[in-house]
Amino acid sequence: MDLRQVRYAIAIARAGSLRRAAGVLHIAQPTLSEQLKALEKEIGAELFTRSSSGVRLTEAGEVFLAQATVAVDAFERAVVAARGKGQALRIGVADGLCDVQARLFSHLPGGPRLRVVPMGTAEQIVSLTDGSLQAGLGYAPGTLPRGVARTLIHRTPVHALLPREHPLAAEEILTLAALAAEPLVMPESDGGRYLAGFIRHRLHPRLGPAAATHDLAIATVEAGAGYTLCVRPGTTVPESTVFVPIAEPIPPIEVVFLWNRQSEVHDLVTAARQLARSG
């Protein structure tokens, strides 16, 4: 039995029509129809009922596709495992998460060989989807493709990081209105979410110097050029700076471990879950 034909049948079932499946598979519809007929002939049963509105699985089709999907997934995992045998796993790490990376690796038994690749969260998701990356550490995205999984490692409230000599640094808690008049230093990678927090409260923050990385944001704050919101409390920062809580509710900073569901990264997933439990 041709594995390609089985994949075609799975695509047709997911698309609900030959026309849409042909578009997804980038092949001609007559060719797809011929391949389906050949598969049905070999099985000895019709897998779909056809109508003007599309196709539906027959009872035999439901039974076959349920087992075939499991078999194809197992085959693809076997291919990924064979190709990766003896090779280093590639793990992407987003800016500002070197401390989380070190803590994650401390939970590993020392089995897998790892190659760390500095990479933003959005780029990690693309690379995880196409298989060029096996795992990643990033900031919680909104949605994920079907083949990418995640587990929450760390959640922390947003605090303002200011120079210790700044007039607002002595406050026990700061409002966004008080901060809006001060220059906000944002990393180029994820500054948008902090602007949204101000806009939600009908405030227009004063933008300060941009920072290419979280480390540069910290250095810019230390130099007295403004404050930042991107740095997680608990991160090692210079003694000349201080974290101050924010009064208004702002979505917390969430750090997640991401992985390709078909990659052999069981030790990494276990380590990530241990790290999540340890806080």
Name its key features.
279 residues, alpha/beta, five-stranded mixed β-sheet, 10 helices
Please give the radius of gyration in angstroms.
Answer: 25 Å
Alpha-carbon distance between the two ends? 50 Å
Order of helices and strands: HHHEEHEHEHEEEHEHEHEEH
Main sheet: strands, sense, barrel? 5 strands, mixed
Strand content: 15-25%
| E-strand count | 11
Description:
The chain is built from ten helices and eleven strands. The protein starts with a helix and ends with a helix. α1 (3-15) packs across α3 (29-43) and α1 packs across α4 (59-84). The model has no long low-confidence stretch (mean pLDDT 87). Helix content is 42%, strand content 22%. The chain has helices spanning 3-15, 18-25, 29-43, 59-84, 98-106, 121-130, 176-180, 192-200, 214-222, 266-278; strands at 48-51, 54-57, 89-93, 114-118, 135-139, 148-156, 159-163, 183-187, 206-211, 241-245, 253-260. It has 279 residues and is of the alpha/beta class.
Write the SSE topology.
Blueprint: H1 3-15, H2 18-25, H3 29-43, E1 48-51, E2 54-57, H4 59-84, E3 89-93, H5 98-106, E4 114-118, H6 121-130, E5 135-139, E6 148-156, E7 159-163, H7 176-180, E8 183-187, H8 192-200, E9 206-211, H9 214-222, E10 241-245, E11 253-260, H10 266-278
Parallel strand pairs: 3-4, 3-5, 8-9
Antiparallel strand pairs: 1-2, 5-11, 6-11, 7-10
Helix pairs in contact: 1-2, 1-3, 1-4, 5-10
In short, what is this structure?
With 279 residues, this protein is α/β, with parallel strands linked by helices. It is built from 10 helices and 11 strands. The longest helix has 26 residues.
